[in-house]
């Protein structure tokens, strides 16, 4: 799918990699982008910034806590009403906070599942829509164990499994909605720079971990955003992609199991 002229919705887009997704979508000719984020976030300023760069009315901030089902659905409805449709959804909002693991599961997994179901509801051909693309944001920490963030790793692993399953032709044949997964590797945002405070380790070990995390090579949010544009354009339904070390997005392979007949 070409991004030109499309209407997009990005969760957690007030800052971090989500903001880079919103910007890159507009850079690639998207007609409008809805920025969903917490009411307490910098969403307004971020939308103003994008409108200043790409033209008035291109971006709109819709305050939305993705863990609140009614708010989340209302944000989809508002996007469609104000912008006249919806073609691309990026379920990006996420936290890496094993100290608050139940909230982490609610944001990283439950809300991504809800965002996928809402995408089918608002874009699905079988629901009166035109079809579209959903990009669910997982992580390389969902592919390999993350020793200090076991619950975070589990949520991202589950996002991969759910997205590959929603990305089966069975769902596409009805909906014409492709479901893709993006797994960024370590990227320079507050999620990493402040990450050690939220790890599943003793307080005394957090300082050491913080020092270690600051030494990790970090790619820019923009490199991940370029990867998302690529996969929206060429990614096959159900495919899983990684952006690591600022390199172009590459597709990940998974083992397949013989099904006994
Ligand atoms: N930074 C990395 O190294 C990295 C690596 C792999 C995957 N990721 C994933 O990428 C996504 C974005 O991460 P980031 O690094 O930009 O993080 P970030 O903390 O910089 O930004 C996250 C954004 O999500 C918003 N958000 C948090 N809770 C929300 C909620 N309940 N409802 C709506 N919005 C909410 C925040 O306000 C913030 O704007 C996350 O899903 C994260 O797990 C990040």
List keywords for this structure.
261 residues, alpha/beta, Rossmann fold, 8-stranded mixed β-sheet, 9 helices, 15% strand, globular, binds nicotinamide-adenine-dinucleotide
Summarize the structure.
With 261 residues, the protein is an alpha/beta fold.
CATH 2nd-level architecture: 3-Layer(aba) Sandwich
Query: What is the third-level CATH name, the topology?
Result: Rossmann fold
Shape label: globular
Bound molecules: nicotinamide-adenine-dinucleotide
Question: Helicity level, as a percent range?
Answer: 40-55%
Report on this structure:
The chain is α/β, with parallel strands linked by helices. The chain has a single domain, classed as Rossmann fold. It is 45% helix and 15% strand. The protein has 9 helices and 8 strands. It has an 8-stranded mixed beta sheet, with helices on both faces. Strand 7 (240-243) and strand 8 (250-251) form a beta hairpin. Helix 3 packs parallel to helix 4. The protein is globular. Nicotinamide-adenine-dinucleotide is lined by residues 11-12, 14-18, 37-38, 41, 64-67, 92-96, 107, 137, 139, 184, 186-187, 189-192. Nicotinamide-adenine-dinucleotide binds next to helix 1 and helix 7.
């Amino acid at each position: 799918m070409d991004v030109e002229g499309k209407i997009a919705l990005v969760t957690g887009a007030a800052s971090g990699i989500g903001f880079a997704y919103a910007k890159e979508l507009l850079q690639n000719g998207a007609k409008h982008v809805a920025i969903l984020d917490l009411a307490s976030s910098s969403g307004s300023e971020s939308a103003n910034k994008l409108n200043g760069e790409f033209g008035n009315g291109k971006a709109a901030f819709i305050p939305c806590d993705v863990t609140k089902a009614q708010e989340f659905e209302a944000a989809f409805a508002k996007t469609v009403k104000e912008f006249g449709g919806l073609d691309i959804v990026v379920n990006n909002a996420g936290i890496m906070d094993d100290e608050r693991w139940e909230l982490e599961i609610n944001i990283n997994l439950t809300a991504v599942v809800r965002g996928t179901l809402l995408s089918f509801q608002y874009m699905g051909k079988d629901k009166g829509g035109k079809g579209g693309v959903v990009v669910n944001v997982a992580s390389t920490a969902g592919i390999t164990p993350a020793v200090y963030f076991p619950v975070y790793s589990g949520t991202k692993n589950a996002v991969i499994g759910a997205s590959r399953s929603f990305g089966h032709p069975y769902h596409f044949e009805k909906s014409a909605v492709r479901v893709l997964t993006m797994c960024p590797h370590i990227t320079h945002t507050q999620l990493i720079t402040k990450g050690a405070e939220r790890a599943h380790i003793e307080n005394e070990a957090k300082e050491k971990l913080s020092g270690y995390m600051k030494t990790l090579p970090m790619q820019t949010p923009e490199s991940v955003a370029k990867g998302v544009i690529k996969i929206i354009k060429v990614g096959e339904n159900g495919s899983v992609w990684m952006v690591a070390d600022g390199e172009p997005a590459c597709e990940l392979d998974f083992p397949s199991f013989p099904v006994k007949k």
